[in-house]
């Protein structure tokens, strides 16, 4: 006489699976905050990269100077994009007077990426990606004395760097080069003691 086969799992099998899942979870939990911080930092640098890329593309396609202006404070930054409205470049005075119109923004990070700030890691002493000393660690946005990075229809740009960190162990920089307006993202790898280009 044939007995029908039982389907399903025994209690012992279920307990074994739960024990394995518990072990995997216990091993993965310590790494979770680091993964969250890394993902947040990558997303934040991608946001900054996107704003600069949109400004460069708009300058080329609309054949007009486009500037990315920022206001910083308390580790946050607000990015806005303006178009040259009177043919003399994007200037703070023209923005205040309404001559250079707002075309995008404001874009801000606080709340979107709570673990990320525009800053250097505490005690960060590595050189700039160019090899020069980092200099003042209280100045994470380096575009000379200006608070506007301008892109031209010819593809040129104001050179500079925007440094971001997760304040724990990861440091990144978004760099704009002058001759071709190229925008790069680099991450600091302390084990290799060098900046490695991500984008």
The gist of it:
The protein is of the alpha+beta class and 199 residues long. The protein has helices at 11-28, 32-62, 92-96, and strands spanning 66-73, 76-83, 102-108, 141-142, 148-151, 160-165, 171-176, 183-189, 194-197. The chain has one domain: minor pseudopilin epsh domain (minor pseudopilin epsh fold).
Can you give a write-up of this model?
Helices cover 27% and strands 26% of the residues. It has a single domain (37-197), classed as minor pseudopilin epsh domain (minor pseudopilin epsh fold, 3-Layer(bab) Sandwich). The protein has 199 residues and is of the alpha+beta class. The chain has helices spanning 11-28, 32-62, 92-96; strands at 66-73, 76-83, 102-108, 141-142, 148-151, 160-165, 171-176, 183-189, 194-197. The strands form two sheets. The protein has a five-stranded antiparallel beta sheet with strand order 4-6-7-8-9, covered by helices on one side. A four-stranded antiparallel beta sheet has the order 3-2-1-5. Strand 6 (160-165) and strand 7 (171-176) form a beta hairpin. The mean pLDDT is 85. It has three helices and nine strands; from the N terminus they run H-H-E-E-H-E-E-E-E-E-E-E.
Unreliable residue runs: none
CATH architecture: 3-Layer(bab) Sandwich
Supply the number of helical segments: 3
The CATH homologous superfamily is termed minor pseudopilin epsh domain
Query: What order do the strands of the largest sheet run in, or round the barrel if closed?
Result: 4-6-7-8-9
* Percentage of residues in DSSP E strands: 25-35%
Instruction: Tell me roughly what share of residues is in helical segments.
Output: 25-40%
Task: Estimate the mean pLDDT confidence.
Answer: 85
Can you tell me the number of structural domains?
1
Q: Compute the CA-based radius of gyration.
A: 24 Å
